[in-house]
Amino acid sequence: MSKIKRLPDAEFEIMKVIWSSNIPQISTLQIIAALGEDSRKPQTVLTLLVRLIERGYLSSEKIGKERTYSPIVDEQEYLRTETESFMEKYHQNSLLGLVKTLCKGKILSDEEIEELKKLLDERR
What we know:
It is built from six helices and three strands. It is mostly helical. It has two domains: 9-71, Arc Repressor Mutant, subunit A (Orthogonal Bundle), CATH 1.10.10.10; 76-123. It has a three-stranded antiparallel β-sheet with strand order 1-3-2. β2 and β3 form a beta hairpin. It is elongated, with a radius of gyration of 19 Å. The relative contact order is 0.12.
């Protein structure tokens, strides 16, 4: 896949389940179970899995009666691409701009601010 494209939220939720499973192949039933009671209908999950295959995020294999899925796109690779896109779009690639926004919005806790200070001190 040449360029990683942003996933719709529903597909991203499925990818998070697959990435967090830490197994090479995960079955449809395992995915549905991991999504829990609040998950979509099984047919909707199957449709989303087909889309993820078409987009190049998953490969699929039929083992007996069960279909299994394996990630093609690494979670960290996807998150890095999404973060870079977010930073460029909303903060002109400025980490300082992002931190200012978080601080002004009181999104960061006192503990997080202290942790940031420690990280900056370590960098000196």
